[in-house]
Amino acid sequence: MLIFNCTEAAGNFFSRVHKGKKITPVEKPPSTVVEDDEPDEFAEQWLVHAKTVQRKHVLYVIHVQTRYCMIFADAKKADVAGFIQRFTERWMNGLMRDALHHDALQWAGGTDMLARIAESCRQYKLYKRGHRSAQGHLGEIAWIFEDYAAEWGCLPPDEIMAGRFDAKMNGFIRGNKSVKGYLVPDEEMMAHWMRQYCGLDESVIQDARNRRDEVKREIRELEAAHEQQDQPLQ
């Protein structure tokens, strides 16, 4: 099940007014703190914030556990179903693209895994609740996104461009008080995905992490070699 913890701005975004009465799908949470909810291994806790950028609605979404984020530009107000569909497709496409890029499909590919994710996304709840630590990261991501949008002169024109921005943000090292040290969101989401939806044990997941590190090192070496070739002769 997807659980979207909505800031006040996000709660207002998902709500509408009909005949002077506010109609909202955002419910009162079971507890005031995300970590105090009853343990549920199938619950995916996300934090959602809404802002207006270049006179259009933008939703910023971050996974509380892994700090994996997605940005949805030009979102349609009060369209929860449309947001869920867009969210599900972006999440699955982003995961598959990352696995392909880092040679992880041998562990994480397959239609069964995608079906399990799709099934999980069919059920969702929207709660009026924040998360201070994740909110801090969302604030930083929002600032970077607005800076990029100002440079581009527009919001991302399609899901491909938006997904590229997501990938850039998810490659940054971030802190998380719930884990030791620092984490890289795209790597942690890959591990979470393999654990949650592929049923892999930690030793296999570590193999995938090791291969990921190898691929990243290979990419850096190729980029360095190309840079050296491009340097003018003295």
Overview of the molecule:
With 234 residues, the protein is of the alpha/beta class. The chain has one domain (2-225). Helix content is 51%, strand content 18%. Strands 6-5-4-1-7 form a 5-stranded mixed beta sheet, with helices on both faces. Strands 2-3 form a two-stranded antiparallel sheet. Strands 8-9 form a two-stranded antiparallel ribbon. Helix 2 (80-101) crosses helix 6 and helix 7 runs antiparallel to helix 8. The N and C termini lie far apart (61 Å). The mean pLDDT is 91.
In short:
By secondary structure, this protein is of the alpha/beta class.
Average pLDDT number: 91
- Give the helix level as a range of percent: 40-55%
Structurally, the number of domains stands at 1
User: Would you list the SSEs in sequence order as H and E?
Assistant: EHEEEEEHHHEHHEEHH
What's the arrangement of secondary structure elements?
Elements: E1 2-6, H1 8-14, E2 16-18, E3 21-23, E4 44-53, E5 56-63, E6 69-73, H2 80-101, H3 105-108, H4 111-121, E7 124-128, H5 132-152, H6 159-170, E8 174-175, E9 182-183, H7 185-197, H8 202-230
Parallel strand pairs: 1-4, 1-7
Antiparallel strand pairs: 2-3, 4-5, 5-6, 8-9
